[in-house]
Amino acid sequence: MRNYENLVIVKPTLTAEEIQASITAIEEIITSNGGEIAARDTMGMRKLAYPVNKNERGYFYVMYYSIAPSAISEIERRFRINENLLRFVTIKYDTNREVAAWNQLVMKANKKASLPAGEAKVEEVAVPAALEEEAEEVAE
Q: What is the pTM (predicted TM-score) of this model?
């Protein structure tokens, strides 16, 4: 199983309940194909760099997960036919350095999720030596 990150941008015209239902459906696509979601990061509503399908804003959501590489094509196919998504990007973390960076991103996302709503500031987190060694062992 390899480590991946998905950033999806959901249409801003949906209600909060519809956005949450879309995110749940996206996570279901990943888990139904054998993936394990390690962390989630809700970035919220943000202004886009340029209009996409006449939308100036979008709801950004990031997922970090592990899955077999063969399932990625099916996940991306299902993302393409989902009309509630404006854009998505899948990033693969393959090398030792990338896996260590993925572990650090997962720790940051989990730390951000565990903070109370008023303390949304994310601090820099150093990767423990044990995790770096583990990442090197996994990659070998």
A: 0.77
To the nearest 10°, report the CA torsion of 73, 75, 78, 79.
Answer: -110
Q: At what angle do helices 129-139 and 96-114 cross, to 10 degrees?
A: 130
Between CA 108 and CA 86 the distance in angstroms is 26
Of the candidates 2, 69, 61, 72, which has an alpha carbon nearest to the alpha carbon of residue 30? 72
Q: What is the pLDDT of residues 65-80, one digit of tens each?
A: 999 999 999 999 999 9
**CA distance readout (Å), 117 to 24, 66, 114, 125:** 21, 27, 9, 19
pLDDT above 90 covers a percentage of the chain that reads 64
Cα–Cα distances in angstroms (integers) from residue 19 to residues 42, 59, 67, in the given order: 11, 8, 24
In the chain, what are the domain boundaries? 2-139
Per the CB < 8 A criterion, the answer to whether 67 and 30 are in contact is yes
How many C-beta neighbours within 10 Å does residue 67 have? 19
The closest alpha carbon to 13, from 52, 51, 73, 58, belongs to 58
Which class would CATH give 2-139? alpha beta
